[in-house]
Structures are given as structure tokens and as C-alpha cells.
Amino acid sequence: xxxxxxxxxxxxxxxxxxxxxxxxxxxxxxxxxxxxxxxxxxxxxxxxxxxxxxxxxxxxxxxxxxxxxxxxxxxxxxxxxxxxxxxxxxxxxxxxxxxxxxxxxxxxxxxxxxxxxxxxxxxxxxxxxxxxxxxxxxxxxxxxxxxxxxxxxxxxxxxxxxxxxxxxxxxxxxxxxxxxxxxxxxxxxxxxxxxxxxxxxxxxxxxxxxxxxxxxxxxxxxxxxxxxxxxxxxxxxxxxxxxxxxxxxxxxxxxxxxxxxxxxxxxxxxxxxxxxxxxxxxxxxxxxxxxxxxxxxxxxxxxxxxxxxxxxxxxxxxxxxxxxxxxxxxxxxxxxxxxxxxxxxxxxxxxxxxxxxxxxxxxxxxxxxxxxxxxxxxxxxxxxxxxxxxxxxxxxxxxxxxxxxxxxxxxxxxxxxxxxxxxxxxxx
Length: 428
What we know:
alpha+beta; five-stranded antiparallel beta sheet; five-stranded mixed beta sheet; 12 strands; about 55% helix; about 20% strand
């Protein structure tokens, strides 16, 4: 600042003195100011040229405030360059890391335009950069299920994954997840689950085939044991007890095989008719009568409350399997004289089938696992009751099939409540 003032003062005084000598001091002062303005304009041109040419030109060496501005700009430019190099390094390492991932990763804007994709996106989804950059995802991928899933990204269904065949290779099964981040961007991750799908199919086929193969011999054995039991009066007392035990275990095996076959049918019935109008009140009335028969001499107190005009769209047999398993579980695990309530009513989110009992209840650490296959809270007691450990697994699968939810709440010593929450769009 000070050199600029000295320069301005020197030029003005010098020109003013020259004007004084020439007999016109104002003209001299004006000439001095013009000289200063021309010099400042020349320096600003240097600055502009320096900014335009960037690193191709050294900063002009000008004294005063202009020099300070140039040095500050040069310092900021060097700092910006270092930041760019650092960010470029981070970006390069990120791209290398994502290219090394076994999953396809695609970044899209809020309107579904592809902004970036890794190498696996080409193998799994056929999306290549730079060819597809800026293209709408829906213009590249034509699979309706995937496009519907993308359209529902802001809904609850988007929190679940989608399994589809790869558009690039139908032999590959992909698990798709799409999430929104930074408010206006979408991240799609596609993982190869071909081996998992193949293993699941093998497991399902094995269970179905083994159950079918076991069904006939168990039926034959059961028939012979029933004949022997009918002639028990002609047998020794110790043999009567043995035959009774064999009959009990055979019945248990038959129940297990039937449940396995039922679960296998549910898993493989992708074409099940889920649009049939089901009168749930009537269905529960049938289950209620069967539960009273099952209760027998235990003296359970039953309560049935239903809305007769509340119908849903679904598969009658599947819903019967789910609801009957829940009710029969309540009968099996509620002590004699206990209360079992069955309700069917309108709920805020659709319709609800609720079964509550005054049984022993389930400890909190077991609740999240009771829908697993063969999981039992008390293994010895469950086998003694004749349970197969598949009832709630069947119920959960049926609920998923109907886009419904299975909610279990329980308190040890006070009983258990199981709710089947049917979504609004399935209510007639």
C-alpha cells in the first residue's frame, strides 16, 4: 500500500511541477493522474493474462498492492492444485477399490441417470462407461421387476432386496439393493448370489424328495402298528407299552413329514393364486372348532371375535395353514384351563388376525428366532407336545407370500400374542 501512495504522490508532484513550469498546474496534475491510471490498467492486464494462462506464465513482478494480490492468487492456486491432486488420488483409490469389489456398484442422480459404475456393472448389468454415462437407467435395463423396484426406492419395500436374473447373463442370479444418499443421488449395489440360490434349491429339492420318499414307509409302519395296537389284548403288557411308544413316535414323524411337504409346497408355489377372496371369519370359525377338539380334556377357555364382512385377497389353503399353526401352537403351549383369544378385525394398516394366550410366554432372547425352522425354546417340552418346530416358520412364509407381517410379543409367565398384519391393498 505505502509504495503505491509514494508512487502516486511522486508522479502527481512531478507532473504538477512540470505544469507549473509550463504555466498550467491543473493540466500537469491531470497528466499525472492519467499516467497513474494507465500504469494501473497495465498491471490489471498483466493480472488478467496471468489468471488466464495459469501455470504457463510466471506471475508479473509488480511493486505494491498489485504484487500482493498476485502473490495471494498464486498461493491460492498452488493450494487448490495440491487439493486437486489429493482428491484425484482419493478418487483413483476409490475407483480401484470399487473395481476390486465382487459386487456391481452404480451411482445415479435423482432422475435415474447413470453417473458412474465399476467394472462389475458391465459383467452383471451390461452398463459400461463412458458409453452409458448420462443415460437413464431405465433406457439401458428393461427388466420390469428391477424398474419397479427402482421406482419404489422411497417406499418401505425398497429397504428389502430384490433377486433377479442378470440382464447380461441369465445364468447369474443377482441380489439388488438401491439406497438414496446425499438427498439427490442413488446407489445401486448388485451382488452375485448364484451359488446361494443353487444351494437353496438343492436344499429345498432334498427336503421335498426325502419327505416324499419317507412318507410311504412311515405310512406302512403306522398301519402295521395300528393293527398291532388293535390286537394289544393278545400281547404281553411290556409289548403294549412299546407299541404305544412306537405309535406316538410314528405320528410325530408323520406330522413332521407333512409340515416339511407343506413348507416345500409353499416355497415352490410361485404361481399360487393370491387374488381369491377369502372369508377369514369363516376360516377362523373352522380353525376354532378344530382347536377345541385338539384341546380335548385340557379345558381351555376359547374366545372368538371376528368381523364377518372383512375379507382379504389371498390363497385360502396357505392362510389356513398359517392361522391354524398359530392357533394350534397356542393350544399346545397353554396350560390346562388357560385362555386363548382369536380375533379378526380392521386395523390402521389393513386387517389383523390376532391370537393371544395365557401360557408360559417366551423369553425375550428367543422371540426373534422362534420363526426359524426347527427352533424350539424348550426342546424337550416341544417334542413331548408333538411339535415339529415348523409351525411358525410356515406362518412366516405365508405372511411373506401375502406381503403381510408376522408380529410376536410375549412376556414370560403372562402369555404370548401373535399378530398377522395384512396390508390394506389385500383387504376387499
